[in-house]
Amino acid sequence: MLMPCSEHSAKIQGLESRLARIEEQLQQVLSVASAALASANRIPESRVITMSSGEESDFDNAVRVRNTLPMPGSSTDTSGPSAGSTATSSPSESVIRASSPNLPPLEEILPIINTYFSQINHAIPLFSQAEFMRMLHDWYTHPARRTWAAWAAVNIVLALGSWIPTTPIQDMNFAEAETAFKGYMNNAQSVLAELVTREQDLLGLQTLLGLVILYQTMANSKQGAVLIGAAVRLVHRLQMQSRNNIEVSYPQEQGLHRCRLFWIAYMLDKEISLKHHTPSIQLDADIDQDLPSSDPADGVGDIYTGDGLVRVNYFRLRVRLAHIQGRTYDMLYSTRSSKISMAERQARVIRLTYLLENWRSNIPAEMLPDAINSRLGRMERILMSALYGSFVGCMVMVHGIWSQQAAWMKIISDRSLMALQMGRTDERKSCINQQPPLPSAWKRCVQLSREFSRALMQLPESDVNIWANLAALLSCLVIILTNMFQSPGHEDLEEDRQITQWLVRMLNKVKDLSVTVPLTQMHVVVADLERRAEAAVATAQMKRQALQERLLMMSGQASWGQEIAQPEHGDDENVEQPLFWDTEAVDFGALDMSNGLGGQTIVDWLDSQYPQGMDLGEAIS
After folding, report:
1. In contact, 277 and 428? CB cutoff 8 Å
2. Where does this protein have compositionally biased stretches of type Low complexity (predicted)?
């Protein structure tokens, strides 16, 4: 039955009206999609973060990097299979592509990755090379499987592989040193929120630990102190501190790798705890894991001398030192330790000193500071010098070199003391309450400081790892300068002068870059201490020369059993006479100057000539 004409016309008009509304809505959707697609090839202003103060943090830079990365299909994308493809008009497809990560061509990054695994990962096993290379292969062969976590992990490996310059640099520009790997770090940090909660695999933890390792080599290491907390919490959620959980849940090879990741997190946590004077996250009492083996079957952590004859497991050494660093903070610098008696504090100092010396005794002689430059390869030198720097830094803190009662604090001027006070952060004020070093401990600290500095002086500046070693180097400088002031006639004086000149030059190069260590304030202190040390040396030399001349005049001899060669010509003003007299080394009571002193010893003669109690230096000046 046919519909009446009027009804048919009304229905047609209704359909046309509905169709018009649908077309209008569709046009609005297409307009929005076109605008989004048109902006895919440029940086939207709304996505670029600016700082009103004119300064940007590393995290802000990281956000910017992620938001402005070239995406597959864009005109600036040349890093993936999508390069050169044209954009489609599908709104949903453009959104997917805008959130896809990218990497440079494989042939560009593979040399950096190989460098990382051959030089760094072998000593600090952050990644399983087999699993990483499999992931990297899948990245380039199966674009659909790409994830932000994998992208971040590759960027961390690229950053670590770029950390050390390929060619050693003698005169390093430390202001530009971080540019080689900072971009890769920013990329990884841009997905930080996804990494800290990633528990389905190890990529999140590995990337976090890689970031912490890198921050330890940078001028501003404070962000590493924040990230290590997130990393250790992730370790706990993954139950890596429990040996039983790992043995039950994973095959042996995977379990071993998880155990090693736990110890990497542990050593970074303890090292940062002592360095920044903050409590560590991981409690020793809550660990059920064996220490890394000293002789692992796969050789992970082993480093050798250049001739391959001497081996030590670097990874185990670092973990054991981290344990002592953690105990140092707990026993001497924690809030709880501030309530112990002085006798108990001294007993703890002795105990920690024993632990540190015992740790050092496990390092072969061929790998100690005096031998590393002649016996080790380049990367082994870098690793061992940084390890020894951590040891020296810990020893210095155990013996209270930065105590308010330390001898050098009484040498410097009020202006220097004020600068030192201004440079102290709240987290470092616990140093001033420590006991100053005993004489034997002071002598040992001088020896270690000289040994460590001498080793670093022989390295190219690019290999010194200045930021990781900065606190130890500053302590060494203060110790050696103070020793020059206290003992201006010691036999290592000329070497100490060379060491302090090198240390001052290195610290001057980075004093305006440092964030963690207040080098600007310490520059005032060091300059004051250096001036006083040199003045003491000059005064001691003048007094020794005056005493020498007086004794020669009295004795009528050039020396006891040794003649000083006299110039053949009369003018000897420019001839430098040897300093054979050392007032600290000679036992005055044992010298018998019978010729010219009437049979008296030199001490008896001096007593008869000068009042009792008069300083010998004053008497001859």
Report:
1. yes
2. 72-94
